[in-house]
Amino acid sequence: MSTENPQAGGAAAAPLGLLPTVGAPAPERADAARNRRKILDAAARIVAEDGPDAVTMNQVAHASGIGVGTVYRRFGDVSQLLWALLDDRERQFQEAYMSGPPPLGPGAPAAERIDAFLDALVDRVGEQREILLAAHSAAPRARYHSGAYRVMHTHVALLIGRLRPGSDSTLLAHLLLAPFSPDVMHHLTAEQELSADRLKAGVRELLRLRA
């Protein structure tokens, strides 16, 4: 995706092993696409129930009903499968806020879209918290150079610019996204045991302190 216009198509490149980039998946046969979907959905269920350390190729094969040989051919190893899962979930999230229904997608006022985006981001980071945290721990600054972050930042900066013309929207977008760093979210959700609803309410209150 272009980092200059988040409404445009394209691809953003970042090294494999950092946070995922978001681009169009390679064309594939219908049966191969179905198998890929089953494998990723099975891996997502295992991560949600038992964490990323519980993921094995055999377990994913069993949970998806796909032969373990096919799972290995498609993804190589567990590490590549987990990065593919992150990329898949990031692509779904990006499609929702760039072209999905309002208020997250186009068609709602900027203030409503920012609220909807931040709510969805709380859920997104919470869902993939352990994998994102592992990636962040391996390369703490990689988040800010990833295609996923650049597209999110541009999207938020554009909304802030519409909501507050003349503001330093580029800086404000960075500051608004800062609390969503995986280590901060891990501290708040796992160590402080704050619910997603409380986090969403807190972000909205913070936005309105100087409104």
UniProtKB/TrEMBL annotation:
- PROSITE patterns named in the record: HTH_TETR_2 (PS50977)
Protein's UniProt name:
TetR/AcrR family transcriptional regulator
Stretches the record annotates as Disordered: 1-22
Residue spans binding DNA: 56-75
Note the superkingdom of the native organism.
Bacteria
Q: Does the keyword DNA-binding apply?
A: yes
Annotated HTH tetR-type domain ranges read: 33-93
